[in-house]
Amino acid sequence: MAVQGRPEPAPGLLRRLDEAARAALPATSTAILLLAAGALPGMPSLMPAIALASVFFWTIFRPAAMSAPVVFLLGLLQDLLGFGPLGAAVLVLLLAHAGTLRVRRSLAKQSFLVVWIAYLGVAAAAVAMGFALHALLAWRLPPPTMAATQMALTAGLYPLLAYPFSRAHRAMQRAEAMA
């Protein structure tokens, strides 16, 4: 979109690379954060919190960049890095993505607090579903403290990730307005 009074810039290689980088940022940053969390010893419950927060945020503010196939691949990466039951994170993230897509237009206009409260609801459902899937697939009930720890990490990590994500989103909006 050209700024009024300026001609549309030619679609050169650098412009296409810039557009591709902006489109890939949500998925790439999430994958890098998952890899970093997977490298931390003794912190496997950090990965689901990172994945869910990233999918939730980017689904609201950049839904084209956080599409269902991308969410599937991120869930698969989380399952492989976390040595969890294959497909559990995929299912949880895809359902969270679908639910978030349904309310994204109204959430995108809300304050951070309202978005965070909505995220807490999605996080509670995701943690409960993940807990149930792990219990079902392992044929034994995991300790409830595991779910409580996961919920606390998932709830507390969102503001820490939303701040840099929102700054990146605003920077991308400014770049798109200039292009």
Q: Can you describe this structure?
A:
With 179 residues, the chain is mostly helical. It has 6 helices and no strands. The chain starts with 12 loop residues before the first helix and ends with a helix. Helix 1 (13-39) packs antiparallel against helix 2 (46-61). The chain has helices at residues 13-39, 46-61, 68-82, 88-107, 112-138, 144-178. The protein has one domain (43-178).
Tally of separate helices: 6
Please identify the structural class as seen in this structure: mainly alpha
Low-confidence stretches: none
Summarize the main sheet.
Answer: none
Distance between the termini: 6 Å
Gyration radius, to the nearest Å? 18 Å
Question: How much of the residues is beta strand, in percent?
Answer: under 5%
Secondary structure: number of strands: 0
As a percent range, the share of helical residues equals over 70%
How would you spell out the order of helices and strands? HHHHHH
Total individual domains: 1
Write down the overall mean pLDDT. 90
Shape: elongated
